[in-house]
Specification:
The complex is a heterodimer of chains A (about 350) and B (about 425). In chain A, the strands form two sheets. Chain A has a two-stranded antiparallel sheet with strand order 1-4. With about 350 residues, chain A is mainly α. In chain A, helix 4 packs parallel to helix 9 (about 205-230) and helix 5 (about 130-145) packs across helix 9. In chain A, about 60% of the residues lie in helices and about 5% in strands. Chain A contains 15 helices and four strands. By secondary structure, chain B is of the alpha/beta class. Chain B contains 20 helices and 13 strands. In chain B, the strands form four sheets. Chain B has a five-stranded mixed beta sheet with strand order 2-1-3-12-6, sandwiched between helices. In chain B, helix 2 (about 40-60) links the parallel strand 1 and strand 2 (about 60-70). In chain B, helix 10 crosses helix 11, helix 10 packs across helix 19 and helix 19 runs antiparallel to helix 20 (about 405-420). The longest helix of chain B is centred in the first third of the chain and has 17 residues, at about 40-60. Chain B is globular. Classes of the chains: A mainly alpha (about 350), B alpha/beta (about 425). Chains A and B meet through strand 2 and strand 3 of A and helix 3, helix 4 and helix 19 of B. Chain A: InterPro entries: ABC_transporter_permease, MetI-like. Chain A: This is Sugar ABC transporter permease. Chain A: It is a multi-pass membrane protein. Chain A: Its main location: membrane.
């Protein structure tokens, strides 16, 4: 064996990879957003799971330490009277007085009729809210014409989406006011000799009344999505289809709608989210009533038991929030899977 | 102005003495004092600001930092304020409403201040509602009566007298319903108004002590005595005593029914008088009577909610906070802030004077002489928060559809066995 000697040693290490700016830059730009997302979204989600295993009224007690011969333990035993005892002084810290109960909150949810009412209403919301998609499509097709003043009509149809949900709720509450000559609805019904009806005061119809109010802005939202989608429809394909003799519903179904799929997809996304987080309309229009949570949904019920005027059940509220999160997760996972599949082509 | 003890001068002297107590240990109070208040409506807000101005005048060394929060928002914000230690003095309510904060040790026990400041005598009437776990946790500054406000002119037109017994009440109501009106207006959308009706019906059917035991969770909701209360309520509902669709109105939205004469009376707190007057009802048209007795052998209990000031457990300037509470509790101050130009309510201090207003006089007279059963706070202040929430929903449900009574009572009983 001979050793080959060379003047210059062979560098056995691979060439050092220079981290290019293009690799780092996106992460740097993402970092602030990610930090905010982690602090205000991810961390609270984890925290909700954690709190849902406790029974807690949402309060922290001030912590005392013993001075002048008092022990910390003595101050602790004094409880809420420690503040008057000269031997106890504030440490500036707080004590979290929650009690670990494991899965107890979830077991209670299972037997809680109000939870099931809320869940049932959530499903009704989810199903009926989908009406906004065909309704939005119809209006957008109707508005997608070249007529003088069309921009004004488009604005008028889009208008409800700009309004705050609170305002929408108020307007519809007034519309549905119960007396025979109070709400516009009952006045109109009166012309036909019908009514008066109290939609929001009746446990069987109130949820539908609120959904009707919610559909107004939601339809406007879907409409705007479809209007932009219609701009992107390929005129050549329309022309070709027309030469082949397609028109009316067939043209819509086989030529236009497939090209509107991206708009439809987004419309479904925003509609599902809109339905699941419905809260403000319910608060304004019925306050969860009449009676026991008859128009409540999970978001409302969670707020009511944990955060409202009489809400002191943080653990229980967190458990409801977790359930709502899991329901949304099913949907979000499906959405992500669909996106991944589409991207892959 | 009318003096309760007819000794205005003595009352003033007592007030001066009281403010003196704050300085009794020889040094005057100083430093920053942070006050959080929920007196956010225009009139109460002015009262609060004026009260702070007068306090600073008397104690120039104290720099008061006053934060006024929306009254409804404060009901949830108080948790954060008390826990973060940003306040020395806060506004709140008496009764069970204090319980979460007392239990969590967030309010300061001021029993000593009550003893040294002579409040045990001057504020004796409310000492019970401020006491919990052997401590006293705040001072009251105002309270107001509940009762039936009615249209005197319509009663006259129909030849009716204000009822004092249940039989008279039902007979009156029959005449009113026949005339095409409802006996009572009420708006139950925000639930608590129905709580007032339950309080009165239960206190008249079963008495004050039973009512207190029930709100304290010591009696089952399925108890036949509770059922008797609901049966009396049902009698009224079924004869058409209440306006239709009350579940869709707030208490303010129910006022026009009375103003327009579609309903003849309103069971409400004294704060309803101002909007009724503003809506155009003169004092000749408007009358007040105590809720009629149902069982003559039962001493009448009354609702009179008390609003209060408290010191936070982690307050930094306890001395100034105590001085401020004594100032608030003084007879002189309570006379001033409760007069018709300010809060228009009743002062708590026994040495203060009640403003000469028809309804304040009637209420004061009723609470001093004719509330022999006892004085309750209000359903949502006597019962713990969670119970109040469920129960008031149940009351609304029952008022809309009395046939659901069994279901309602069952749900309330389940809630009771869980909460207490």
């Amino acid at each position: 064996m001979t050793t080959v000697m060379t003047d210059t040693p062979i560098d056995s290490k691979p060439p050092r990879r220079v981290v290019s700016q293009q690799t780092i830059a996106p992460w740097l730009f993402l970092l602030p957003a990610f930090l905010f997302f982690a602090t205000y979204v991810l961390y609270p989600i984890v925290q909700s799971f954690y709190i849902s295993t406790f029974e807690w009224n949402g309060l922290y007690s001030p912590q005392y330490r013993g001075v002048d011969g008092f022990t910390d333990q003595q101050c602790l035993e004094l409880g809420n009277r420690a503040g008057r005892e000269p031997g106890c002084e504030l440490t500036g810290d707080t004590v979290w007085n929650a009690e670990y109960v494991g899965m107890e909150n979830y077991r209670n949810l299972y037997t809680d009729p109000f939870f099931w009412t809320s869940l049932k209403n959530n499903v009704i919301w989810l199903v009926l809210y989908f009406l906004a998609i065909p309704a939005g499509l119809m209006i957008s097709l109707f508005l997608n014409q070249k007529v003088v003043g069309m921009r004004l009509y488009k604005s008028l149809f889009f208008f409800p989406f700009v309004l705050s949900q609170v305002v929408v709720g108020l307007v519809f509450s007034w519309f549905m006011l119960p007396g025979a000559d109070e709400g516009l609805l009952n006045v109109i019904l009166g012309w036909f000799g019908a009514g008066p009806v109290n939609i929001l005061g009746n446990a069987d119809t109130a949820t539908y009344g609120i959904i009707a109010a919610g559909l107004w802005p939601q339809t406007a939202y879907c409409m705007i999505l479809y209007l932009t989608g219609l701009n992107a429809v390929d005129p050549e394909q329309i022309e070709a289809a027309r030469l082949d003799g397609a028109k009316g519903p067939k043209m819509l179904w086989y030529v236009v709608l497939p090209q509107l799929w991206p708009a439809t997809f987004i419309a479904i996304v925003v509609t599902v989210i809109g339905a699941l987080r419905s809260f403000d309309l319910i608060t304004i229009m019925t306050n969860g009533g009449p009676g026991f949570y008859n128009t409540s949904v999970l978001a409302f019920y969670m707020y009511d038991v944990a955060l409202s005027e009489f809400g002191f059940r943080m653990g229980y509220g967190s458990a409801i929030a977790v359930i709502l999160f899991l329901i949304m997760m099913v949907y979000i996972a499906g959405f992500l899977w669909k996106m991944w599949r589409d991207e892959k082509g | 102005m009318r003096s309760i003890f007819k000794t205005g001068a003595a009352a003033l002297a007592a007030a001066t003495m009281l403010t003196g107590v704050a300085h009794a240990d020889g040094h005057s109070v100083s430093g920053p004092l942070r006050i959080f208040s929920d007196m956010s409506n225009p009139a109460p807000r002015a009262v609060m600001e004026d009260m702070v101005a007068r306090f600073t005048e008397a104690n120039p060394e104290v720099e008061v930092e006053l934060v006024i929060t929306d009254r409804e928002a404060w009901k949830t914000q108080i948790r954060n304020v008390l826990q973060s230690g940003t306040a020395d003095v806060v506004n709140w309510y008496a009764g069970n409403r204090m319980a979460p904060y007392v239990d969590a040790g967030l309010f300061m026990d001021i029993s000593d201040l009550w003893e040294e400041g002579g409040l045990t005598e001057t504020l004796a009437s409310t000492q019970g509602s401020m006491t919990m776990d052997d401590g006293i946790w705040g001072v009251p500054y105002t309270y107001y009566q509940w009762g039936v406000y009615y249209r005197e002119d319509i009663f006259e037109e129909l030849g009716l007298e204000a009822p004092t017994t249940w039989e008279e009440e039902l007979a009156n109501c029959e005449v009113i319903v026949e005339s095409g009106r409802a006996c009572y207006t009420i708006g139950t959308q925000f639930l608590w108004t129905a709580g007032g009706w339950f309080d009165y019906l239960n206190m008249r059917t079963n008495g004050y002590d039973f009512h207190m035991a029930l709100t304290a969770g010591e009696v089952e909701w399925t108890d036949p005595r509770v059922r008797a209360t609901f049966e009396n309520w049902q009698t009224l509902i079924e004869m058409g005593a209440f306006i239709d669709d009350h579940q869709s109105y707030s208490w303010q939205e129910a006022l026009p029914f009375m103003v327009n004469g579609e309903a003849t009376a309103y069971l409400m707190g004294n704060f309803a008088v101002a909007p009724l007057r503003e809506a155009g009802l003169s004092d000749d048209q408007l009358g007040f009577y105590q809720f009629p007795q149902i069982d003559p052998s039962i001493e009448p209990g009354e609702d009179a909610p008390t609003d209060t000031f408290h010191i936070a457990a982690n307050a930094e300037n306890v001395e100034a906070a105590e001085a401020f509470l004594l100032f608030v509790a003084s007879a002189e101050n309570q006379t001033l802030i409760n007069n018709g130009d300010n809060l228009g309510q009743l002062p708590v201090n026994a040495n203060s004077q009640v403003d000469d207003d028809e309804f304040l006089n009637a209420g004061f007279d009723m609470l001093s002489n004719n509330a022999t059963g006892g004085i309750a706070q209000f359903f949502d202040r006597d019962a713990p928060a969670e119970m109040a929430q469920v129960a008031m929903q149940g009351f609304q449900q029952f008022m809309v559809d009395p046939s659901t009574l069994d279901q309602v009572l069952m749900i309330l009983e389940q809630a009771r066995s869980r909460i207490y």
